[in-house]
Input
Amino acid sequence: MKHNEEMSEWCRQLEHLHLPRWNELPELDLYMDQVVTLIERHLGLFFADKQEKMLTKSMVNNYVKLQLIPAPVKKQYSRRHVALLIAITILKQIVTIKEVKEGINNLARVHGEKWAYNYFCEEMENALKQVLRQARGEVSDAKSNAIPFEELPLKLATHAVACKIVVEKTVQIQSLETRNQEMNA
Output
């Protein structure tokens, strides 16, 4: 019973998750430690029970080397860096780094970076809500609209990430419940 409560609370928190939009990201440039801390704070619910870090200094340095993000200026990272790192950290769970880079670049080229990032945040939040409704057995009566071709990869990727994190949390809670039952038997 305790595990169901834990799952319900996690779902409630996830359902109210708000990814920071472009204008909510820091205006002042940040150092590496600050960037990593900021991203962990915003994405903690995605990775709450994992032992490995969601973002490390080494990862950020590799993203710069791979030209996935621009190099920092005087060891400082801008709003653009933070936005890209949030998107990369979420999307790399289900697509390759190359696909993340191409997808971000394609959407930004069509609509601009600010729009693309804000759209990503909205789609990620919407996908989480939809998957959580499905996980609770609620039926959506929303009519599906045609998805513009250039937006299709992002829509599908955010939905896949949402499914993945709900599956991981559910399996984790079920495993704990099974272990507790075995210990009490």
Summary: The chain has seven helices and two strands. The radius of gyration is 18 Å.
